[in-house]
């Protein structure tokens, strides 16, 4: 994952000489696509195609991304043969990716049908891609707009693993206060959850 993040950031900075990048379009779109693609065995150079298929099949009500409903069907007509072809390649030459795992999975002697393999692949590629980039970018937006939370992260009082592990899906701040006297009583504001009392954070406390 670190290699992918470095690759995406390096590419974005190379395209923007002033050092200012669009977090959504230059970073958030590509990191989840490449990470999930690596898990599935999709070549990184096909990340742009996966992003396009994701947008056109999940944002069909957004005219900026899908000007007409036919785009949804065109995306399916492009992506389904791509996935089927990849599945056939893995049947002939298994690798250590999830696509191969779907093909080889067995329950009581039964394997997944071709349609089931396709749907598992599509579910991870599309649903995982869309939700991960949305949480990542909205979480970063919340962090940037909350000076107190940003200060906690930059000071080291909150380990980087906490805000990066799981940003808050709600409007609230995306970090969890560390379990120590300096931050235990931290509360960003009355309309946000108490970071120090977050059960998932406490499970990771030492």
Distance between the termini: 25 Å
Number of domains: 2
This entry's quaternary arrangement is: single chain
Residue fraction in strands: under 5%
Q: What's the pLDDT, averaged over the residues?
A: 77
Basic shape: globular
Find the CATH topology of the largest domain.
Cytochrome p450
CATH class of the largest domain, please? Answer: Mainly Alpha
Number of helices: 10
CATH homologous superfamily assignment of the largest domain: Cytochrome P450
Number of DSSP-assigned strands = 2
**Spatial order of the strands in the main sheet?**
1-2
Largest sheet, in brief, is:
2 strands, antiparallel
Give the helix/strand class.
mainly alpha
Proportion of helical residues: 55-70%
CATH architecture of the largest domain: Orthogonal Bundle
Low-confidence stretches: 169-206
Write the layout of secondary structure elements.
Elements: H1 2-15, H2 23-28, H3 30-40, H4 47-58, H5 70-92, H6 98-104, E1 106-107, E2 110-111, H7 114-145, H8 147-155, H9 161-165, H10 199-203
Antiparallel strand pairs: 1-2
Helix pairs in contact: 3-4, 3-7, 4-5, 4-7, 5-7, 6-7
Structure description:
By secondary structure, this protein is mainly α. The protein folds into 2 domains: 2-134, Orthogonal Bundle (Cytochrome p450), CATH 1.10.630.10; 146-206, no CATH class. It contains 10 helices and 2 strands; from the N terminus they run H-H-H-H-H-H-E-E-H-H-H-H. The chain has a two-stranded antiparallel sheet. Helix 3 (30-40) packs antiparallel against helix 7, helix 4 crosses helix 7 and helix 5 packs across helix 7. The radius of gyration is 20 Å and the shape is globular. The chain starts with a helix and ends with a helix.
């Amino acid at each position: 994952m670190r290699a992918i993040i470095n690759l995406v950031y390096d590419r974005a900075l190379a395209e923007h000489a002033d050092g200012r990048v669009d977090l959504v379009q230059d970073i958030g779109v590509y990191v989840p696509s490449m990470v999930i693609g690596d898990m599935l065995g999709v070549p990184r150079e096909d990340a742009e195609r996966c992003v396009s298929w994701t947008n056109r099949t999940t944002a069909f009500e957004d005219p900026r991304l899908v000007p007409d409903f036919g785009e949804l069907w065109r995306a399916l007509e492009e992506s389904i043969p791509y996935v089927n072809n990849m599945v056939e390649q893995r049947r002939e030459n298994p690798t250590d990716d999830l696509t191969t795992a779907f093909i080889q999975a067995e329950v009581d002697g039964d394997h997944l049908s071709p349609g089931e393999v396709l749907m598992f692949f599509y579910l991870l590629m599309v649903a995982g891609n869309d939700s991960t980039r949305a949480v990542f970018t909205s979480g970063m937006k919340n962090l940037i707009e909350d000076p107190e939370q940003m200060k906690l992260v930059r000071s080291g009082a909150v380990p980087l693993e906490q805000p990066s592990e799981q940003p808050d899906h709600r409007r609230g701040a995306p970090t969890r206060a560390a379990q120590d006297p300096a931050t235990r009583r931290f509360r960003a504001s009355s309309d946000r959850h108490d970071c120090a009392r977050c059960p998932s954070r406490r499970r990771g406390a030492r």
